[in-house]
Design a protein that fits this description.
Strand content: 15-25%
Distance between the termini: 24 Å
CATH superfamily of the largest domain: Bordetella uptake gene, domain 1
Helix content: 40-55%
Order of helices and strands: HEHEHEHEEHEHEHEHEEHHEH
Strand order of the largest sheet: 2-1-3-10-4-11
CATH architecture of the largest domain: 3-Layer(aba) Sandwich
CATH topology of the largest domain: D-Maltodextrin-Binding Protein, domain 2
Number of helices: 11
Largest sheet: 6 strands, mixed
Number of domains: 2
CATH class of the largest domain: Alpha Beta
Number of strands: 11
Radius of gyration: 19 Å
Mean pLDDT: 89
Low-confidence stretches: 1-24
Structural class: alpha/beta
Shape: globular
Length: about 325
């Protein structure tokens, strides 16, 4: 089952890697002197990994140095993040993390201080989150889920969460909709997606990037997406905003971080090069095709968003009474 479920995602990663190198006339601002390592602290084949490999290929052509994507899994992304927190602050080692890195600070005893251990570089992409559901669930959108729960009563339906970040997104959706579901924690995306597909759990959160192949195959269905506009990858799926639910307009992110202490000119140079890559039509088209939006914001803007997310995730975690086991 695990191999079957991961196959579409591995294919996605391979497909993303088909994008050509940066145009020859593109000039880089950052000039690495050796291999650049981008740690992806999650398993190969997922959305973060696919976007990271696409970006690495483009930067390799721009920088004239090998850009290695190194998957270091464990601890909901904290194992890989810790490696970067300890790395030399010279721009040659970075981590590409999902926004759940902000919530880990409030749930785990970490070997680093999340708020101060990293130099935020930029958002590479905004993965659009979708509420996925079992094909057998008698609801086809969030409005239908609300109606179903109002008939059955609270705590009759279940929501799978493979990590704290996904749990927080799900709780934001449920809070906006005024419903309660029983949280079912999982370790790893493959098992939770398989259980939703089989109807053992009712719903869960995934990025469109990760869930698209299974949605298109009819093995999952989407009850709605975050953000303010529909995605061409799932044009038939309405946003939660369209369905009448407020406060769900902001997407999560895949963010690139260098170690704290990396000189500001180095951080800014890397951001400028990534912004050039993100602006290319081929890169933007690939992200849109697979349900993500390009980032590219300045280090200052990303730092502001990151610190806000650290604060807000802590407030939500305390309100829900969440623990690391959740």
């Amino acid at each position: 089952m695990r191999r079957t479920l991961l196959a579409p995602l591995v294919a996605l990663a391979a497909g993303l890697a088909l994008a050509g190198p940066a145009p020859a006339e593109t000039k880089s601002a950052f000039h690495p002197t050796k291999t650049v390592t981008i740690i992806v602290p999650y398993s190969p084949g997922g959305g973060t990994d696919a976007v990271g490999r696409l970006m690495a290929k483009e930067l390799e052509g721009m920088w004239g140095q090998t850009v290695l994507v190194d998957n270091r899994t464990g601890g909901s992304g904290t194992v890989g993040a810790a490696m970067v927190a300890r790395a030399a602050p010279d721009g040659h080692t970075m981590v590409l993390s999902v926004s759940g890195i902000a919530s880990n600070a409030h749930l785990m005893k970490l070997p680093y201080d999340t708020a101060t251990a990293f130099a935020p570089v930029t958002v590479v992409a905004y993965p659009v989150a979708t509420l996925i559901a079992s094909p057998t669930l008698p609801a086809n959108d969030l409005k239908g889920l609300v109606e179903l729960i109002s008939k059955e009563g609270p705590d009759k339906r279940t929501s799978a969460s493979p990590d704290p970040g996904s749990r927080l997104i799900a709780e934001r959706i449920f809070e906006s909709a005024g419903i309660k579901l029983v949280n079912v924690p999982y370790k790893g995306a493959a098992s939770f997606v398989g259980d939703i597909s089989a109807g053992r759990v009712d719903v869960g959160i995934a990025s469109i990037t990760s869930g698209l192949a299974l949605i298109n195959a009819g093995r999952l269905k989407s009850l709605g997406i975050m953000g303010t506009e529909r995605m061409s990858a799932l044009p038939q799926v309405a946003t939660f905003q369209e369905q009448g639910f407020a406060g769900l307009e902001e997407n999560s992110w895949y963010g690139l971080f260098a170690p704290a202490g990396t000189p500001a000119p180095v951080v800014e140079a890397i951001q400028q090069d990534i912004a050039q890559v993100l602006a290319t039509p081929a890169f933007k088209a690939k992200l849109t095709e697979y349900g993500a939006l390009p980032g590219g914001q300045s280090p200052a803007a990303f730092t502001e968003r990151f610190q806000r997310d650290v604060k807000q995730s802590g407030e939500t975690i305390r309100r829900l009474g969440m623990t690391a086991a959740d």
